[in-house]
Amino acid sequence: MNFEDRLNDLKKEKDVAILAHYYVDEEIQALADYVGDSFYLAQKGKDLNNKRIIMAGVYFMGETIKILNPDKKVYNLNWLADCPMAHMTNEKDIVDMKNKYDDLAVVTYVNSTIETKALSDVCVTSSNAAKICKKLKEKNIFFIPDRNLGSYVSEEVPEKNFILNRGSCPRHNQINKEDILSLKKLHPRARVLAHPECKKEVLELSDYIGSTKGIINEIPKLDGDEFIIVTVKAIRYELENNYPDKTFYFLDKLTCINMNMHKKEDLLTCMDNPYNEVKIDEDLRQKALKPLERMLELGK
Ligand code: 13P
Ligand code: SF4
């Protein structure tokens, strides 16, 4: 029996749905039932009726699904695949900021731990952060943990006072304006599309700024056939499948080592490893659920 047949049998027997982010290996994206950006995966994970869900992404993505859909068994395809940015904030910073400002909303990027979410007023993803911040009644916003996304959103929502945190994505943050300028020199007609986790000097050279799904959806709206994509290059699979007549250029160094940890063979075995199953404390879950539910409501 070949791999796909074995996987299909297992999925039927155990009632499993496979979710994958655009950043994982294309073989896994091809086998997944649902592929998307972090907002889509949270929405989908909440609504699925399957008994078991396998998440091929980074740790917080499986954890988010478990918070929203606690009766299901949720497995991270590889429990070691974590997002380093999720740990770039701490409880003390949040408590200090709450003490400093009366009129404060703690706005937390989903790339964060459950402990951070539990102390937050609302969660956001890169696809809905500006929309949600505009809807908040508070004047002051403590935006954690991503400084670059926070800086971008602060420009989209000038009526609010943003206080930024120190965190950033080690992968997107390493890209400099020189990287973009040298690609533009090689491909002068190409339009530039960048993820808002990039630094401001990169976003300033971009024709479009948005989440992974936003970038994919924007291609047919832009003139031309050549595009420089400034996000993790595994998104190539979805772009080339959707737009076979267009040409895409990527930055070779823009890979996510955490998303790369997944191997398709683990789809057959991950449910046997107790470390892969997401288990969370119920009290903590209840606290983290509120900002996530608020995100789903305000981000619609
Ligand atoms: P998206 O919200 O676009 O899925 O991005 C998640 C992420 O981790 C980007 O590095
Ligand atoms: Fe985290 Fe960056 Fe990887 Fe996204 S690309 S999962 S922010 S390390």
Strand/helix succession: HEHEHEHEHEHEHEHEHEHEHEHEHH
What structural class do helix, strand and pairing data support? alpha/beta
- Counting DSSP H or I runs of 4 or more residues, the number of helices is 14
Strand content range: 15-25%
Biggest sheet descriptor = 4 strands, parallel
The kinds of small molecule bound in this structure are: 1,3-dihydroxyacetonephosphate, iron/sulfur cluster
Q: What would the principal axes of the Cα set say about the shape? A: globular
Strand runs, count: 12
| Helix content estimate | 25-40%
- How do the strands of the widest beta sheet line up side by side? 2-1-3-4
The chain-level mean pLDDT equals 97
Multimeric status of the protein = single chain
Computed over alpha carbons, the radius of gyration is 19 Å
Low-confidence parts, pLDDT < 50 over ≥5 residues?
none
Cα end-to-end separation? 43 Å
Would you mind describing this structure in some detail?
The protein is α/β, with parallel strands linked by helices. Helix content is 40%, strand content 17%. The chain is built from 14 helices and 12 strands. It has helices at 3-14, 26-31, 38-47, 59-68, 91-100, 114-118, 129-135, 147-156, 177-186, 200-203, 212-218, 236-242, 266-269, 282-298; strands at residues 16-21, 34-36, 52-56, 73-76, 104-109, 122-124, 140-144, 161-164, 191-194, 208-209, 226-230, 247-250. The strands form 3 sheets. It has a 4-stranded parallel β-sheet with strand order 2-1-3-4. Helix 4 (59-68) links the parallel strand 3 and strand 4. Helix 3 (38-47) packs parallel to helix 4 (59-68). It is globular, with a radius of gyration of 19 Å. The model has no long low-confidence stretch (mean pLDDT 97). Iron/sulfur cluster binds at residues 58, 83-85, 111, 169-172, 197, 232, 256, 258-259. The site of 1,3-dihydroxyacetonephosphate has 11 residues, from loops.
